[in-house]
Amino acid sequence: MKRSVGWIIMSVLSGSAALAGTASAQSPVRWLAHDMQRQRPVVVTPGKQSLPVAAPSDAVVLFDGTDLSKWRDAEGGAAKWTVKDGAMISVANSGYLHSADKFGDVQLHIEWAAPLPVVGSGQGRGNSGVFLMGLYEVQVLDSYENETYADGQAGAIYGQYPPLVNACLPPGEWQSYDIVFRRPRFHPDGTVARAARISVVLNGVVVQDNVEIWGPTAWLQNVPYKNLGDKLPLSLQDHGNPVRYRNIWLRELAESSDSGPPAAPARTLVELNADELQPFAGDYKTILGDFAKIELDGKQLRLHMKTGQLIDLLPTSKSDFAMRFTAGTLHFQEKEPGKVSGFTMELGGQKYPVNRAPSP
Asked: Please, are residues 210 and 192 in contact by the beta-carbon 8 Å criterion?
């Protein structure tokens, strides 16, 4: 990504006041953006890929090689890029391309090719970019034997994170990005609850490993986070180079709501006293001869498995118990009141009968 000098001057004159009242963006700890002293990633030759990669059944296909009906220009009008031989091609001065639909958390697949013959060098050679939510750029650049700053190479999170390695193919060859993006989350007061995170695979090689994005990527500045909504269009950059794109599809990702251990068992429990729990304590064996033991510690029953697990049992009735951290249950049987003969453990959709071991 690169901006004109005029754009920068306007940003300094008109944007500084707007940013003054906003929380500062996080800054890099060790490096200023675009420092040529920053170590360049080592070159890795990627393995041969089979492209194009077919979209899975639940994917949203944004470009199938036929038309630009799912893309718009900056004003919401018809896209001004061209389509030729199954690829969309950036047209100089036509502006960014924006998806008609909006997205947040996604798995994105996109294939691109730098122009051939080669024209220019550094940031002027095969430059474009993939902007998640239109804000967070994964740099597209012809980085094959092309010297430039580390955080501006292909696979970089522009101005923030260089790629782990340079896995680019020669210009003219089709290359692929597979990106997993998690949008930022905000508190109701607009402060950041969780920064955006991104992983990038370039030509089958990991180049970004779940890194935390400091804020919207930009040239010559650090831009603070601002809550602009949960979903925004995907954007592709016009940087004046005829970069080609094809086979663009994505899968929207649901935010996991059940990660981490449960705060408490989601089960209705009953309270049993020590006398009511005592009949369940004892030695048991399975039909295979494996032994288990149930012990009573105060008012807590614990199942000792032969494999070494020690499992708290929580009463859900006078004859049924749940495992504290596992979606498993034990249903006890009695030959007569107060005489437990065994139990059936139900776990993972299967039932395991366990008998009371005979007294020695």
From this structure: no
Instruction: Render pLDDT for 327-340 as a digit per residue (tens, 0 to 9).
Output: 899 999 998 888 99
Fold category of 274-356 in CATH? Lipocalin (2.40.128)
Residue 163 has pLDDT above 50, yes or no: yes
CA angle 229, 231, 236 (to 5 degrees): 120
State the average pLDDT over residues 223-229.
96
Q: What fold is seen in the domain 23-252?
A: Jelly Rolls (2.60.120)
Contact 69, 81 (CB under 8 A): no
Q: Domain boundaries in the chain?
A: 23-252, 274-356
Residue 139 carries which side chain, given as an amino acid letter? Q
DSSP output for 13-48: IIIHHHHHTSPPPP--SS--TT-TTSPPPEE--PPP
Task: Let me know: does 196 contact 158? Beta carbons within 8 Å.
Answer: no
| Cα–Cα distances in angstroms (integers) from residue 349 to residues 129, 168, 231, 327, 355, in the given order | 48, 48, 38, 10, 20
pLDDT digits (tens, 9 = 90+) for 279-326: 999 999 876 667 789 999 999 999 998 878 889 999 999 999 999 888
